[in-house]
Specification:
Belongs to the sigma-70 factor family. ECF subfamily. The protein contains 9 helices and no strands. By secondary structure, it is mainly alpha-helical. The chain has 2 domains: 14-95, Rna Polymerase Sigma Factor, Chain: A; 111-176, Winged helix-like DNA-binding domain superfamily/Winged helix DNA-binding domain (Arc Repressor Mutant, subunit A, Orthogonal Bundle), CATH 1.10.10. It starts with 13 loop residues before the first helix and ends in a 5-residue tail after the last helix.
């Protein structure tokens, strides 16, 4: 079982804080240019990579305690390069693409509803007249079982029974037409 509580916030001693500022000022612009080239000009992602690289430097006490300008620059560039490579290998990157042009919205399907109506009306015609009548009155006209019973001159229980069997028969008819499984 994992602990979902947030990690305690790390503190930076004042000497390391000043060193981090110096490293950021010294290496930040060059690192940003390097990452921009790797990301083909994606400024937002490049800024994220630079920030993550500096964060990892802050978390790595070894680099901070043994600071040298060349080794720190090489370390930052390696971390940034690996972050870009990891992102480009991720499934998110493979499924998404950037574009300046938003695609047009898809047009509504004008044929689908017409075909649906044709298939349903064909399936309804395959039902017995008694089943079709109660189904149409209940689901298309919105009548209650009592209203249908009064209009058809049959008991409400018969209406409910016919409606039940009509729905089952309609389902079979639609399955035969490949609509419902």
């Amino acid at each position: 079982m994992t602990d979902s509580s947030p990690e305690p916030r790390q503190t930076v001693d004042p000497a390391n804080a000043e060193l981090l500022k110096v490293i950021h000022d010294e290496h930040g612009p060059a690192l940003n240019r390097f990452v921009l080239r790797l990301t083909r000009g994606d400024r937002e992602f490049a800024e994220d990579v630079v920030q993550e690289s500096l964060l990892r430097l802050w978390q790595n006490e070894t680099i901070l305690t043994t600071y040298s300008q060349d080794s720190t620059r090489a370390w930052l560039h390696t971390v940034a390069r690996n972050l870009v490579i990891d992102d480009r290998r991720s499934s998110r990157y493979k499924r998404e693409f950037q574009t300046d042009v938003v695609p047009e919205r898809s047009a509504p399907d004008i044929f689908g509803p017409a075909v649906d109506k044709w298939v349903v009306s064909d399936a309804l015609r395959s039902l017995s007249p008694e089943h079709r009548t109660v189904l149409v009155r209940a689901h298309y006209l919105g009548q209650t079982a009592v209203e249908i019973a009064h209009h058809e001159g049959i008991p409400p229980g018969t209406v409910k029974s016919r409606l039940h069997y009509a729905l089952r028969a309609l389902r079979v008819a639609l399955e035969e037409r490949g609509v419902v499984k």
